[in-house]
């Protein structure tokens, strides 16, 4: 069992070989991309539901112009 399995994938040890650190960063990148895809899909479903019900209050746009959700 490696450190990732032992910690549940949350925190790498302080002294980590570069290969394992790169693997850790890759796993984080994949999880981040999965989260952004899920949030985008959720936003699209909310907008679709708002259009179907005619409720303008349910369509919420991110106020930040620098936010990644606009990409």
Query: Cα-atom Rg, whole angstroms?
Result: 18 Å
How many DSSP H or I helices?
2
Give, in order, the helices and strands: HH
Helix residue percentage: 55-70%
**Class inferred from helices and paired strands:** mainly alpha
Give the rounded overall mean pLDDT. 75
Largest sheet: none
Number of self-contained structural domains: 1
Report what the structure shows.
The chain is an all-alpha fold. It has one domain (14-70). It is 58% helix and 0% strand.
Summarize the SSE layout with pairings.
Elements: H1 3-7, H2 18-53
Summarize the structure.
With 71 residues, this protein is mainly alpha-helical. The protein has helices at residues 3-7, 18-53.
Characteristic terms for this protein:
mainly alpha, elongated, 71 residues
């Amino acid at each position: 069992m490696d450190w990732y399995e032992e910690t549940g994938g949350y925190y790498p040890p302080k002294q980590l070989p570069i290969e394992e650190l790169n693997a850790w960063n890759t796993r984080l990148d994949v999880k981040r991309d999965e989260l952004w895809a899920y949030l985008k899909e959720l936003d699209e479903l909310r907008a679709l539901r708002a259009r179907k019900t005619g409720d303008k209050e349910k369509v919420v746009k991110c106020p930040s112009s620098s936010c990644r959700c606009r990409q």
